[in-house]
Specification:
The protein is built from 2 helices and 3 strands; from the N terminus they run E-E-E-H-H. The longest helix has 7 residues.
Length: 68
């Protein structure tokens, strides 16, 4: 079964577990964040970009502070 991207309605983020460079250009790096979902096992964590997190009304800084 294919995984679907979480949406603002389905995502309840707990914390950010990691980061990776999803795309790199000469001027910029585009990061993705491994987001642990609230009430779900770590195996269900999802890679999300900044736009998807902002659309779900989450702050990267807030989620990163929860993981420390």
């Amino acid at each position: 079964m294919a995984k679907t991207m979480p949406t603002a309605k389905t995502l309840e983020a707990e914390m950010i577990l990691g980061t990776k460079v999803a795309k790199k250009t000469r001027e910029e790096e585009y990061l993705e964040y491994l987001v642990e979902r609230k009430g779900r096992p770590v195996e269900d964590s999802t890679w999300m970009n900044v736009a998807a997190l902002q659309k779900a009304c989450y702050s990267i800084e807030d989620l990163m502070s929860r993981s420390s």
